[in-house]
Design goal:
By secondary structure, the chain is mostly beta strands. The chain has helices spanning 8-13, 153-158; strands at 56-69, 75-92, 95-103, 108-117, 124-132, 164-177, 180-189, 207-209, 220-231, 235-252, 259-277, 284-301, 311-329, 332-342, 350-363, 366-377, 383-395. 3% of the residues lie in helices and 55% in strands.
Length: 403
């Protein structure tokens, strides 16, 4: 990786789309596909005179069986965690689009549907639609693509299980020297609140809500700057900083009717990741650290009586996660992840989660993972989980993930 710009990693990331069946990004420096009039061309791209348009379609199934103890739910369980259906295609030589719909076996939700426009120049990209938050190294990816069974504790607590927003994001990258590149992004969204539910009828909790229409200043915003550089002959170091701004929202007691409004919340983070491969590219090691600060209205509890406004916890909470992953060979890897966070209650209770795992890749199309984890929350019994996860991929699986 002495010559950075033509490296394989860069080729996947920095380019513009071409074929409907292909990946989202074009390799810099490689010959570009020239679209001809159908049906003679082999691009698969549609025109107004043809129906040869051929989007790449994919399915991903994610199954989990586990045992839990010391938690509210104790015992064995097996579930289809998600069945994902996606499609991607070039709209024209300057635009690539995709969508991802996910079902848990009972309902179907649209998680992402976005278009990437590269007509502003090779190093610029506009992303428009609904897509995952560009924050740190893990929030952009779907849960089945993680190294671990679940997203780290600190990310779940401060940002949510998954966060997708409808809006627009501008990305730009530049090379600082022959082995270093820097990227930044700015996004504007209607809402960047978490997608997961906060409670049920048995244990109701205050729900965070955002008004449907709002002033320009009360839209939600995201920002990220990150860069990576070669370290030695086989190593890469990446550093980054991210932020998510929610200027105006409310905590609502949906059953009792109480509401605390005019609240704001900001989460910002720092991340560092080091990756290494041996000379044969068969063994690897990756380690990373993320530190997050959650400030403003960080949580809420229901009022004492129905109709009372939720009791809001204001202040600043901090948390972090640390992981190490060792690729024993192209088919086997082991890893350890530790995450700690101050929770969004009045006391600022601490929680610590530790997860160890082994992953076996049968091929690029399916894998099995065995994991064990513990969760320790102040004032509560420790919980333990042992799980096996099986994931399969069918078709060209791709969506708009940036480095």
């Amino acid at each position: 990786m002495h010559n950075f710009i033509p490296s394989a990693f860069t080729l996947l990331i920095f380019s513009s789309p071409l074929l409907a069946q292909g990946a989202a990004f074009q390799t810099p420096g490689m010959p570009r596909q020239v679209y001809g009039p159908p049906p003679e061309d082999a691009s698969g791209q549609a025109s107004r005179f043809s129906s040869v348009f051929n989007p790449a379609i994919s399915f991903v199934g994610d199954f989990v069986g586990d045992y839990q103890s010391g938690a509210e739910e104790v015992g064995w369980n097996a579930e289809l965690r998600s069945l994902e259906f996606g499609a991607q295609a070039s709209v024209d030589p300057t635009a690539w689009a995709y969508f991802i719909a996910v079902s848990d076996g009972e309902s179907l939700d649209l998680e992402e549907a976005a278009l990437h426009y590269t007509g502003l120049g090779e190093r610029h990209k506009l992303r428009v639609g609904k897509f995952f938050l560009d924050f740190g190294k893990q929030m952009q990816t779907h849960v089945h693509e993680l190294r671990t069974l679940e997203r780290p504790l600190v990310l779940r607590e401060y940002l949510g299980d998954e966060v997708s927003g409808t809006g627009v994001q501008w990305d730009y990258w530049f090379s600082a020297d022959d082995k270093t590149a820097v990227r930044f992004s700015l996004g504007v969204f209607s809402s960047l609140l978490p997608e997961h539910e906060h409670g049920d009828e048995a244990q109701p909790e205050a729900e965070a809500e955002i008004a449907g229409r709002k002033s320009l200043g009360n839209l939600n915003y995201s920002a990220r700057v990150t860069g990576f550089t070669d370290v030695g002959a086989n190593g890469t170091l990446q550093l980054g900083s991210s932020a998510r701004f929610v200027p105006d929202f409310a905590f609502v007691d949906e059953q009792g009717g109480g509401e605390a409004d005019g609240l704001d919340n900001t989460v910002w983070g720092l991340d560092a990741t080091y990756g290494w491969k041996d000379d044969t590219a068969t063994k690897s090691f990756t380690a990373g650290l993320e530190f997050l600060v959650n400030s403003g209205a960080v949580g809420a509890e229901l009022g004492a009586a129905p109709g009372d406004a939720p009791i809001v916890a204001d202040g600043t909470r901090t948390g972090w996660m640390l992981f190490a992953d060792h690729g024993l060979d192209p088919s086997n890897s082991i890893g350890l992840q530790i995450s700690r966070a101050e929770l969004g209650d009045e006391a600022g209770s601490d929680a610590t989660e530790i997860e160890a795992y082994y992953t076996r890749y049968f091929s690029e199309f399916h894998r099995i993972r065995f994991g064990v984890s513990t969760l320790d929350i102040d004032g509560e019994d420790d919980s333990f989980r042992a799980a096996v996860q099986y994931t399969f991929f069918v078709g060209a699986h791709g969506h708009g993930v940036n480095w």
